[in-house]
């Protein structure tokens, strides 16, 4: 049975003091929640990861990096490796976020290398993908999503999918205030799950968690998360406010 997840991507926000304060606020607010098998994941900026993890030992919160390099070490200025992350007890990484693709030129070939490294290091990957507005308008959104998944993930053995979480993020709905309707989200999530089934089997498809990312707020979270193939959300702006983030967690 797949788990529901609410993951907060803090992006390039908050200094160390602010990060610790926010995680403490979130921790205090979810202490009384019965999460069951549901998961809460937070991805601070990498320079603050160690401080946040060391400061807070609430077992209800897991931590992820926002990025990871494909090499163990070397002349890759500004990058962080899987070994470095694991050394500070971080075993989850976001890969393929639309901002990494758009601003830093990350393509499917590079992401495949990063995914392979994560699998080799037994890291869990929250793999982000989704179409631009022009793709949606041209009705190419299914084709774009299928290509992104095929190129970066579908070479993996079925057994590797225990460490894969999918995060569908329509790029046109990130930070814009626009949101895919719950029916649009379900339509794409169902397509994704069927695509995984076609390339692997029903067990892999049924077990993989598929998150929706794109201007999720407390006001729309419950309806979006209530769709049968939507297993939670990758949250941006609302993850920077403890009250908003916890209200979204409660919608799982």
3D architecture notes:
This protein has 252 residues and is of the alpha/beta class. 43% of the residues lie in helices and 15% in strands. An 8-stranded parallel β-sheet has the order 7-6-5-4-3-2-1-8. Helix 1 (16-30) packs across helix 2 (46-55) and helix 8 packs across helix 10 (218-225). The two termini are 15 Å apart.
Give the arrangement of secondary structure elements.
Layout: E1 5-9, H1 16-30, E2 39-43, H2 46-55, E3 61-65, H3 82-87, E4 92-95, H4 98-104, H5 108-120, E5 124-129, H6 133-137, H7 141-152, E6 164-168, H8 182-199, H9 202-207, E7 210-212, H10 218-225, E8 232-235, H11 242-250
Helix pairs in contact: 1-2, 1-11, 8-10
